[in-house]
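Structure record:
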Amino acid sequence: RVEDVPAYEKMFAAFEKKNPDIDVRFVTYQDSQYETILTTALKAKKGPDIAQLKPYGELQPLVEAKLLLPLDDRVPELKNFYPVALEGARGRSDGKLYGVPYSVPNMGIFYNKAIFKKYGLSVPKTWDEFMKSLQTLKGNGVIPIAAGGASGSGWSLEIMIGVFGPNIYGGNSFWDEIRSGKADFNDARFVAVLKRLQELGPYLTPGFEGIDYTSATFQFINEQAAMFVGGSWENGNFKIQNPKLDFGIFAAPPSKAGDPAITSSFCDGSYGLTSSSKNPEAATKVLRFMASKEFAQMFADELGWPPATAGVSSKDPVLQQMLAMQECSTPYLTLVGFRWQTPTASEVIQSKIASMIAGRISPEQLAADVQAAVKTWYKPFQK
């Protein structure tokens, strides 16, 4: 992300000060083009020494094509990382680690503290309280939740499943059942999640189907909306775009008061050593630095994201809230479990979730479509 360049340059300056013989050049590309650019360059042996890698199923083509080198023996610091982070950087066929994870984001609801105060709202403790807050905001002419699904932004609506879903389908218990094939996407618990998202439809940005993700974030950043459903990566961006924005984050509330508020988490990505690297020894030194607690602390301080390893503290109140939310988390269902082969669960959801929220297709139909797609390759569903 181009907005992250100053932070990375500052972090690499700290490395270069201790390693004056190594110069780190950090280059960004547009996300929609990055995978193609990277793969093409690596196959032509003209790629970078270190590549930022997407996790899970999107990592596997690079591993299978032998375009990356395993890091298990090269980066011993990986033993300090959270297991959920390492799973996103692991080769599916050989079990080896091909990346240094950089963040374990969790997802929740960002809220504008000034707007909440103006209308006498507090962080809701139950779903009913949350719905009453939405009704109060809408009744006063305020957009309750900024959201957009246009121009390839279906992923930002899919995140709502990760935010609201765990408290409805049961967190790790459902995760274990669906991963083993004991449950599937037609399960009433998953359909209940989609039904709840339909309940939220009237409280999203009017015309959300024609608004993209960036426009939705600007509604929240510019204080035109009270809330935004998103992930940890928004923290630093919101502060860069509007330093005066006073906001916090909370996990989606459970149905019953006193029940845990479960959040979804996942490996956001990692940094890998390319097999065509012209400077493998220097690149390995850089990767070991990126696997250090020093880097993790700087990453948290400069970018405001939860890092992928423990032992990091923060004075940022929003990041503190995120780190606390991680204490009660479950894997982000559709990403961690069902993006390994195509058609992925996410591809189906992202193409149809806006229509489902708008009421043009039923939650049962969307769930059935996801199940039919994933069953073509997910063996536990084929029993």
Notes: The beta strands are 50-53, 68-69, 100-101, 107-112, 143-146, 225-231, 247-250, 263-265, 270-274, 329-331.
